[in-house]
Amino acid sequence: MRDSFRGRGGELSESDWIAVEFEGKRLSGRRGESLAAALTAAGIRAMRLTRREESRGIFCGMGVCQECLVEVDGVANQRACMTKLEQPVSVRRQRHFAKAIAGGDGEDPQPTGAAPLDPDVLVVGGGAGGLNAARSATLAGARVLLVDERPLPGGQYYKQPLAIPALVEENASDPQFAGGRALIEAAEAAGVTMLRGARVWGAFEPLEFLILDDGGCRPCKPKRLIVAAGAYERGLPVPGWTLPGVMTTGAAQTLLRSYRVLAGARMLVTGNGPLNLQVAIELARAGAEIVGVVELAQRPSPGMLPALGKMLANAPALALRGARYLAELQRRRIPVVYESVLAEITSDAGGLSGLVKRWPPHPGDAGRRFEADAVCMGYGFMPSNEILRALGCVHRFDSVRGHLVTERDADQRTSVPEVYAVGDCAGLGGAPAAEAEGVIAGLAAARSLGCRPSADQHRSEVRARAALARHRRFQEGLWRIFQAPRLTTELAGPETIICRCEELTLGEIEADLEPGFSSIGALKRRTRGGMGRCQGRYCGPILTALSAAREGRALDEAGHWAPRPPITPIPIGQIVDDRPLTETSEAG
Ligand SMILES: Cc1cc2nc3c(=O)[nH]c(=O)nc-3n(C[C@H](O)[C@H](O)[C@H](O)COP(=O)(O)OP(=O)(O)OC[C@H]3O[C@@H](n4cnc5c(N)ncnc54)[C@H](O)[C@@H]3O)c2cc1C
Ligand code: FES
After folding, report:
1. Tell me: the pLDDT tens digits for 313-357?
2. Which residues 6+ apart lie within 8 Å of 106 measured at CB?
3. Which atom of ligand 1 lies closest to the CA of 154?
4. Considering only CA atoms, which residue is closest to atom 39 of ligand 1?
5. What is the pLDDT of residues 549-576, one digit of tens each?
6. Is 199 a pocket residue for ligand 1 (Cβ < 6 Å)?
7. Ligand 1: which of 135, 147, 156 to mutate, most ligand atoms within 8 Å of CB?
8. What are the CA-CA distances from residue 187 to residues 256, 367, 439 (Å)?
């Protein structure tokens, strides 16, 4: 697979290649690419082995699911999708979850004991929303610290390609890459301080944070907070969804767009929403055979014309882009199957086989099988709102979209006055909305600190408010067109894994849903569902729905798990104070 791109990207020099030893096999990866990309390019899919000795591989591709854990140079718990290749490495599959938690031979980084960082504004997330927020607040006169977990800012929409000259050149004309590059450069030119490859893992009221980077753990006490943490893809449990080679559509897109690696030569793309169409086209243009695109929503019909009109009136370029994707799929003779769903995935020596069925079910429909090397599932997104919820910001449940939405005013200020929320973490609105919200929140946060934005900035705020209103109208039309049933466990059988980390099946969970013990908290304590490394990001929405249905109540914020630190898994050395016990207790 790699070879097909080597020619397209120009020959790489010797120094661009890094030796990777994988369980005795000698491979090579490109400097700066993720370990997951290097392993995928070499045809290696299975990364960690579960307690039941089942193989797991890349699923989310963005550091959330923890399914790609490997041991790197003897250090356990390394996410292959987030580990950059900088020097020769020796890699092993991570063999057992419990053993892995005990740690590898590597040293945990220790708390630095450094004085707290004290920016005027802390921005969490360097995507479309965060970069705009940080730039606007900085230009208005605030001291801004932007923290992003990735080594390269840009987030999901503006994710940047591997910084190898040949690939950068090849991607120069891509508008998403170019837009992202311009935005990052604009934020840097404005003077935003960026902490790259750093995670906010602790958020405590009123406004205290813990940040982990290569140097260790740092406290941060900003005067204002802007959360721009984005979203992750929703999972849909069907038999076989944990097989290596089955991944989110976004994971396949990241392998391709960031690293020019195809997840498979033949790929099936399934789910609901426009991202699947875009990624199917991107993969096909890169040389993958797309055996089918499966969409849960209805086939476009004249009844959708009002929605289409709304999209055209408010964002004609975006609406036409969608139409071009459909036309290109047709031109490439890629079958698009509507009102259907991926019902099961099986594997054998020849690869994966996806069973696609009509949805709602049709009597007598035996389904249709699609053979592929990789299967993508993209059923929309879930907001990454853990920091906002930990700080007590009020949320309401959006029953149409099936997720919590952060309550905000017109300045993107939450119910906690010092906290602003922008972009997909507050409610899914897409990249243009995230950008506009970023500008508005950045200026509002700066003003609240006494800064006085320039007349130019005032004009960009007016433009941002107008753009936001237009984009929200566009989104209303878009989601009317992709309107589809919100599935949870309809396709799962008793043996289907629901909680990927704890390997809990639907049958086991249902057996524990006893009357009087079916609240979400009781369910967690009884089953361990949501106690694994992804911290319930995938099983949480499903268990929440099961619990609410069993208790006969509507879904609301109280029916969700309370977020607890650490927000993402971190080495234990970060939360264990290394001072002697007496000193610790005296201090306490
Ligand atoms: C996998 C994926 C692929 C997508 N691809 C497309 C696409 O091709 N086209 C399209 O139109 N839309 C796409 N979307 C949707 C689009 O990316 C979003 O609408 C847009 O990026 C929202 O911008 P944002 O600033 O809210 O979040 P993002 O751009 O996602 O940025 C969020 C950033 O926050 C960082 N972050 C999160 N938590 C922390 C933390 N605790 N500490 C430090 N940093 C943190 C992340 O690393 C990330 O860089 C995609 C979404 C996903 C999840
Ligand atoms: S694939 Fe690496 S964390 Fe999900």
Report:
1. 999 999 999 999 999 999 999 999 999 999 999 999 989 999 999
2. 73, 74, 75, 76
3. 49
4. 229
5. 888 888 888 888 888 888 888 877 666 6
6. yes
7. 156
8. 26, 50, 12
**Sign of the CA dihedral running 156, 162, 165, 171:** negative
33 Cβ inside 6 Å of ligand 1: no
- Summarize pLDDT for 439-450 with one digit per residue, the tens: 999 999 999 999
Residues 6 or more apart in contact with residue 262 via CB below 8 angstroms: 1, 4, 255, 256, 283, 286, 287, 288
Angle between helices 455-481 and 316-331 (to 10 degrees): 40
User: Is ligand 1 within 6 A of the CB of residue 230?
Assistant: yes
Cβ atoms 441, 398 nearer than 8 A: no
Q: Which residue has the tokens 């010092």?
A: 418
CA angle 246, 250, 256 (to 5 degrees): 90
Local confidence band at 164 (pLDDT 50, 70, 90 cut-offs) = confident
Q: Give the Cα separation of 200 and 208 in Å (integer).
A: 10
Please give all residues whose beta carbon lies within 6 A of any atom in ligand 2, as ranges.
58-61, 63-68, 79, 81
The letter for the amino acid at 491 is L
Ligand 1 and 430: CB distance under 6 A? yes
Q: What is the pLDDT of residues 196-255, one digit of tens each?
A: 999 999 999 999 999 998 888 899 999 999 999 999 999 899 999 999 999 999 999 999
Q: How far apart are CA 566 and CA 535, in angstroms?
A: 9
Query: What is the distance between the alpha carbons of residues 567 and 431, in angstroms, rounded to a whole number?
Result: 24
Q: Which of 96, 122, 123, 215 has its CA nearest to residue 434?
A: 123
Does the beta carbon of 161 lie inside 6 Å of ligand 1? no
Distance 158 CA to ligand 1 centre (A): 8
